[in-house]
Amino acid sequence: MTHPTDIRRVPAALTLAAHGVPVLPLRAGKGPFGNCRTCARNRCGGRPNMKTPGPCACPYPCHAWAAATTDLHTLNSPQWATAWRTAAAVAYHPGGAGVTVVDLDNAAAIAWARATLPVTRTVATTRGEHWIYQGVMQSVNAVRPGVDIKSLMAYARWLGPGAGATAVLPDVVRALAVKEPSPARRAPQSLTVSLRGQGGACPHRTPTYLDRGIAMAEQRITDAGSAVHATVYRAFLAVLSTHGRCGCLTDIHVTRLFTAAQAKGESVRHCTDAWTNARTTLGL
Q1: Nearest Cα to 158, choosing from 238, 93, 249?
Q2: Dist CA 168 CA 176 (whole Å)
Q3: Residue 164 — pLDDT band, cuts 50, 70, 90?
Q4: Can you list the alpha helix ranges (DSSP code H) found in 21-60?
Q5: What are phi and psi of 152, to 5 degrees?
Q6: How confident is the model at residue 1 (pLDDT cuts 50, 70, 90)?
Q7: How large is the average pLDDT for residues 29-35?
Q8: What are the φ/ψ torsions at residue 70 (nearest 5 degrees)?
């Protein structure tokens, strides 16, 4: 090794990398290391929130899950040495290792998993358990109370190999990723309210303001790398909170939003449900 062996987290990281598990250091608080100066404000080409690394080839561990690697030279490099010295934990990229982690954060979530999910390899955490399945999917937070899914474009703490045999990722877990953000927002499958606003006085000075808002919502949906359904709902909510009461929204605007959502794999029913749920939340 290039650096002293008292960098506590390196041996575990090297062992994992040697077995094909992409790893990265975590700072105190379980968060990734922040962008370096070169990569700050996405100057390197990475997108917001480090969801995708873009063309960046930064040698520092500063792109969250996208920094995870199995390259031993990188893990032992001077650029990573400082991070390892101050690291509080080793994390890994489940999707890069070909697995999905169902993160159960409390006793109620564990009870739900035991009653609902196939038995698989289990790793104890500080407050709950990680259930590990073979196979990858999109990562989604808060699929139900106390339950997150970590796979592609996400990281999880390495807490040991766990116990039990690893089962194949079941459909019941995949289905969690397409559910509504909250059961309270579940809507009828058919649209029962108008897609237009309520016809009040429009406070906006120019149509450009509306067009910019629609374009920003479209871009937000297009850039979603995970939790697409939740992102669509939040984009609809943002548009309606600003433009939903004055009557300036038209079917053309709504079609643009629906088209962006469908391009990310959402069905017409899911778009309609999300739109209706957003209107209901805002009292429209």
Answers
A1: 93
A2: 16
A3: very high
A4: none
A5: -70, 140
A6: very low
A7: 87
A8: -110, 5
The values of phi and psi at residue 254, to 5°, are -65, -40
Mean pLDDT of 46-72: 76
Query: What is the identity of the amino acid at 211?
Result: D
Query: What's the start-to-end Cα distance of the chain, in Å?
Result: 63
**DSSP codes joined into one string, 231-273:** HHHHHHHHHHHHHSSSS---HHHHHHHHHHHHHTT--HHHHHH
Distances in whole angstroms, Cα of residue 157 to Cα of each of 24, 27, 28, 150, 277: 9, 11, 12, 11, 34
Largest pairwise CA distance in the chain:
69
Residue 132: pLDDT band with limits 50, 70, 90: very high
3-state helix, strand, coil in the chain (%, to 5): 40, 15, 45
Are 249 and 282 in contact by the 8 Å Cβ rule? The answer is no
Q: Which two tokens stand for residue 179?
A: 């559910």
Give the span between the Cα atoms of 121 and 98, in whole angstroms: 14
- For residue 241, the model assigns a pLDDT of 78
Q: How far apart are CA 174 and CA 217, in angstroms?
A: 26
Mapping DSSP onto H, E and C, the string for 63-100 reads: CHHHHCECCHHHHCCHHHHHHHHHCCEEEECCHHHCEE
* Structure confidence at residue 162 as a pLDDT band (50, 70, 90): very high
Specify the pTM. 0.61
Contact 145, 237 (CB under 8 A): no
Spatial neighbors of 148 by CB under 8 A, at least 6 apart, are 102, 103, 105, 139, 140, 141, 142
Residue 153's DSSP bridge partners are 151
What residues does 150 pair with on adjacent strands? 101
- For 139, the token pair is 């990562």
Closest C-alpha among 228, 206, 215 to residue 257: 215
* CA separation for the pair 50, 30 (Å, rounded): 16
162 Cα distance to chain centroid: 24
